[in-house]
């Protein structure tokens, strides 16, 4: 299955996923787009691009001895991917314990229970409501067991739960606003008898013939055609992964991270913004202070950024204990913050970027900061500068 999804020669030769693979399948009730994101730590930026478009995460874990432990231990990719998925808005998670048919596992209930018991506390600390938003199940990807149809009792006597497709079919996706202003972050573009932009509609709808804006370069475009899962359509709504053929702009003028938006209510374009950050783990001997530089990942944007002001540090433990708000002392601006701190800060980028406040459009207002191949912070946009100004009131 991996060989089918990994389409370029480098991936097939190395046996690892590099790019985000795309495929479609349908069950009786739902049409799905699979975004096969890489698991290797060198390709986490590509994983972020895939996860930022997803409604549901399917976290594949190996049951084979040693393989689960490698991914789960400190610095392992299972940990980083869970944290990133949560940050990127993937609120529903299906944890599939794969390779249950491996000779070292042999559909062992003890091994399955061990993996689940270790994952549950970590998922909770990552912000998942395990009872409500996470489901576990055993599978064999190689043999196709427990994917499309339920496990045969002869194969695994102790599992009586659903198969993967049943679980995916039953997950309730949060409703999006089809009547709101259009927001479609562009993840890729190509030329095909015109300019085609690819992306997922986060809010609003696109109709053939619509006049829209490509931001931040403020280009007026007209929608000539819409493709959804390879099929031509005249309209597409929120949650759909689409290809939109546009007139009025050249392929060379569109970049990943640009946003297709409505004329009446275009997306905000800024050089700086205020954010609430949670520091996860800084590199050794590094201080998080004014002047700190990192790479910002927000929807399809990848931009170098700099912390230009630390505004306020939140002490979550003290906040819970504090009963009388009148006794609050005015907070001093911190000079620096440490691991696990929550801080409001101002972030600056070199190029104009399209973002929104998290409270208005969560998918366009949550982000990660990475440096030297490691995710060091997760955050959300809390304030934008007023229009036509690069500073805050």
TrEMBL record:
Occurrences of domain Tr-type G (ranges): 1-179
Family: Belongs to the TRAFAC class translation factor GTPase superfamily. Classic translation factor GTPase family. EF-Tu/EF-1A subfamily.
The protein's name: Eukaryotic peptide chain release factor GTP-binding subunit ERF3A
PROSITE patterns reported in the protein's UniProt record: G_TR_1 (PS00301), G_TR_2 (PS51722)
Protein source organism: Iris pallida (Sweet iris)
Keywords: GTP-binding, Methylation, Nucleotide-binding
Gene3D superfamilies: P-loop containing nucleotide triphosphate hydrolases, Translation factors
Pfam families with a match to the protein in the record: GTP-eEF1A_C, GTP_EFTU, GTP_EFTU_D2
GO molecular function: GTP binding; GTPase activity
């Amino acid at each position: 299955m991996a060989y089918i999804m990994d389409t370029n020669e480098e991936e097939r030769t190395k046996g690892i996923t590099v790019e985000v693979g795309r495929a479609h399948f349908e069950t009786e009730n739902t049409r799905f787009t699979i975004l096969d994101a890489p698991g290797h730590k060198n390709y986490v930026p590509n994983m972020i691009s895939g996860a930022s478009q997803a409604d549901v995460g399917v976290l594949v874990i190996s049951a084979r001895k040693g393989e689960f432990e490698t991914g789960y231990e400190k610095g392992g990719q299972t940990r980083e991917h869970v944290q990133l998925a949560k940050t990127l808005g993937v609120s529903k998670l299906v944890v599939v314990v794969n390779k249950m048919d491996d000779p070292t596992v042999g559909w062992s209930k003890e091994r399955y229970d061990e993996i689940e018991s270790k994952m549950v506390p970590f998922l909770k600390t990552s912000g998942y409501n395990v009872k409500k938003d996470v489901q576990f199940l055993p599978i064999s990807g190689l043999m196709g067991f427990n994917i499309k149809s339920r496990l045969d009792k002869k194969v695994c006597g102790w599992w009586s739960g659903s198969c993967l497709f049943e679980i995916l079919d039953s997950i309730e996706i949060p409703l999006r606003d089809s009547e709101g202003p259009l927001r479609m972050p562009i993840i890729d573009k190509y030329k095909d008898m015109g300019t085609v932009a690819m992306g997922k509609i986060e809010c609003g709808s696109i109709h053939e013939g619509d006049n829209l804006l490509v931001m931040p370069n403020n280009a007026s475009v007209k929608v000539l055609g819409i493709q959804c899962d390879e099929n031509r359509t005249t309209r597409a709504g929120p949650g759909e992964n689409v290809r939109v053929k546009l007139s009025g702009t050249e392929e060379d003028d569109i970049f990943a991270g640009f946003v297709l938006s409505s004329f009446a209510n275009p997306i905000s374009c800024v050089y700086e913004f205020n954010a609430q950050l949670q520091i996860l783990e800084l590199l050794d001997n590094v201080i998080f202070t004014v002047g700190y530089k990192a790479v910002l990942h927000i929807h399809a944007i990848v931009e170098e950024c700099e912390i230009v002001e630390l505004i306020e540090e939140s002490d979550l433990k003290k906040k819970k204990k504090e009963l009388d708000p009148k006794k609050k002392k005015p907070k001093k601006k911190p000079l620096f913050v440490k691991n696990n701190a929550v801080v409001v800060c101002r972030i600056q980028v070199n190029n104009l970027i399209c973002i929104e406040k998290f409270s208005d459009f969560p998918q366009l207002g949550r982000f990660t900061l990475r440096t030297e191949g490691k995710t060091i912070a997760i955050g959300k946009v809390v304030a934008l500068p007023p229009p036509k100004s690069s500073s805050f009131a």
